[in-house]
Amino acid sequence: MNITGTTRVFYILGDPVAQVRAPEVYNHLFREHGIDAVLVPLKLPAAALAGFLQHGMAAENIGGFWATIPHKSALAQLLKPGDPVASIAGAVNAVRRLPDGRLEAALFDGIGFVKGLDHFGIPVAGKRVLVVGAGGGGHAVAAAIAQRGPATLAIHNRTRERAAGLVLRLQPLAGAAAVVAESNDPAGYDLVVNCTSQGLKPEDPLPFDARRVDAGAAVVDIIMTREPTPLLRACRSRGLRAEAGFEMLVQQVPEYLRFFGQPALADQLQADLGPIRALLYPKK
Question: Do 70 and 161 belong together in one domain?
Fold first, then answer.
């Protein structure tokens, strides 16, 4: 990659950043498609975020940045995104610098998730949906599902108050369809989504009883691994439709590119995301 005085600079902000995959993905795309841009990771402490927005983003050749832990919630508070999904989730993962220097924030976790459902052929409109887990991921997923018109959007969390808080935030989008689920029992739902961290470790209990999922239902686990989680294995052993969360990341790639001013490349990639899947999750 030939970096010159005309190169558009993007960042990914996090602390830590050693684990981030975005630079290898997007720098590969910039290089392959002749885009004069570079994505650089910045290990930015949380205390420095506000100062970075004010001073670090003043350079006119900065196009914007991706954001990861621990900055996503703080950015939502500082930049007040207009996107309803970002507002409900209280988080953003992308910020762009407009020509007049203003910063515009967005969240692509939710759209990545529902585009993943489209890819898998899993409908939402008019369906009964259970979201298990009301953390950051659960907020984004539930808000995006709410925009698709489910008949029921039930939220379960180990702390009932957290589930109730999310339901309250969802009601402007979902109305009476948004309800608190009194248990994590998946019976009676058409789509069940695991938005908890249970499954990251082999010894973790299942987030819900896979034996109770209805025969025609679908299950999605948003844990970001290509290898099937214990939940997915348990569901697939029953012949259920059970999909992994990595597609959520794959489907965000065109959305990021469109947001950052590359609509033609975004459309090209959306037509065939196979190379992006191979780049993000190479088969061993």
Answer: no
- Residues linked to residue 207 through DSSP beta bridges, in sequence order: none
The answer on 134 and 63 residing in a single domain is no
On whether the CB atoms of residues 138 and 164 are closer than 8 A, the answer is no
Cα angle, residue 269 at apex, residues 268 and 273 outer, rounded to 5°: 140
Q: Enumerate residues 6+ apart whose C-beta is below 8 A from 165.
A: 134
Looking at the fold, whether 143 and 97 belong to one and the same domain comes out as no
Task: Count CB neighbours of 284 within 10 A.
Answer: 5
SS3 95: strand
pLDDT in tens, 232-268: 999 999 999 999 988 999 999 999 999 999 999 999 9
Predicted TM-score of the model (pTM) = 0.90
**What range defines the domain where residue 154 resides?**
110-246
Residues annotated catalytic, as ranges: 72
The Cα 167–Cα 156 span in angstroms is 10
How many angstroms separate the CA atoms of 256 and 222, rounded? 19
Give the closest residue to 65 by CA, choosing from 12, 7, 9. 12
Q: Do 128 and 75 share a structural domain?
A: no
Q: Give per-residue pLDDT as tens, 116-161.
A: 999 999 999 999 999 999 998 899 999 999 999 999 999 999 999 9
Q: Name residue 263's amino acid.
A: P
- Flag whether 155 is in a domain: yes
Half-sphere exposure of 2 (CA within 13 A, CB side): 3
Instruction: Give me the CATH number covering residue 51.
Output: 3.40.50.10860
- Give the tokens for residue 251: 């489907």
Q: Give how far the C-alpha of residue 198 lies from the chain's centroid of Cα atoms, to the nearest Å.
A: 17
